[in-house]
Amino acid sequence: MLSHDYEYGSILETSVRVNWKLEDVIGRRTFDYSLPFLPEALAGVSAIRCLSDAEKLKLNQIRGFTYLAMFGLVEEYIVPSVLDHVRTGDRSDDHEVRALLHFAEEETKHIQLFKWFVREFERGFGTPCGVIGPASDIAAGILDHSPLGVFLTTLQIEWMTQKHYLESVKETKEGLDPLFRSLLKHHWMEESQHAKLDTSTTTWTSARCSTAGCRLRSSSTWRASRKPSAGGWRTRRRPRSERPNSRPTAGRFS
Ligand SMILES: [Fe+2]
Ligand SMILES: [Fe+2]
Questions:
Q1: Is residue 23 part of a domain?
Q2: Distance from C-alpha of 134 to C-alpha of 139, rounded to nearest angstrom
């Protein structure tokens, strides 16, 4: 059982206060490819003896690319999972509803930020780097699991973000690329609230499972899907022919 004293009203107040705009972070800036992107603690390239210093720098930047691209990828499933929770959960606390909708809006903004980053990296790095995907298929696979499993996965990612930034990035004296460092900082600022919200959501979901039971694939009728031209995500209901005979909707429990 998780133990915490997080309160939706204060989390919402903080999230509104630290909220930033995409243009404030990106501006007209770009990356300095003569500098590493990630601290060595996260990149882990210095001990690779077969690489020259120039190759280690390249690999560091590839690791940085992978790091942010993966965040953008997983956030594609986090957004619909949070919206499903708002739709099907207890909506008696207005602060909770607002905080969770704000959470979803911020993650959608992060997806936009990381898409910009991928485009900018591919333009400036000189060599294309592949990423697993498509994100919509990975999101659908994750959302096919129980709400508790989905939120526990998110919880691990949210707290990992906190640990990585606070222990490896914030105080490092390594001369990281300033823009990449700024992306990590701004993401961490908003993720600080997400980690608390996800802890609360996971606690509620766990308690609900304990009392009402929790089906293994409670979100199987909802899939993340991408509009080809809009560039954003949306959830769509599976065609009736694809649905199992008896199943709860996303976030609901038997
Ligand atoms: Fe995020
Ligand atoms: Fe997040």
A1: no
A2: 9
What's the CA-to-centroid distance between 70 and ligand 1, angstroms?
A: 11
Residue 186 located in a structural domain = yes
Contact 107, 19 (CB under 8 A): no
Percent helix, strand, coil in the chain, to 5, is 60, 5, 35
- Which of 224 and 161 is assigned the larger pLDDT? 161
Distance from CA of residue 229 to its chain's centroid?
A: 22
pTM reported for the whole predicted model = 0.82
- The environment of the single-atom ion ligand 1, i.e. residues with CB closer than 5 A, is 107, 110
Calpha distance 242→1 (Å, rounded): 36
The CA 184 to ligand 2 mean position distance, Å, reads: 12
Does residue 217 fall inside a structural domain? yes
Distance 199 CA to ligand 1 centre (A): 15
Q: Which CATH number do you get for residue 160?
A: 1.20.1260
- pLDDT tens digit string along 65-103? 999 999 999 999 999 999 999 998 888 899 999 999 999
What residues make up the domain containing 209?
A: 34-242
Q: If you ran DSSP here, which 8-state letter would residue 17 be given?
A: H
The angle at the Cα of 59, spanning 53 to 60, to the nearest 5 degrees, equals: 90
* Residue 48 CA, ligand 1 centroid: distance in Å: 31
- Largest separation between any pair of C-alpha atoms in the chain: 59
Number of domains in the chain: 1
Residue 129 has pLDDT above 50, yes or no: yes
CA of 193 to the centre of ligand 2 (A): 8
Is 90 exceeded by the pLDDT of residue 53?
Answer: yes
Asked if the structure places residue 207 within a domain, the reply is yes
Q: Stretch 174-198: mean pLDDT, rounded? A: 96
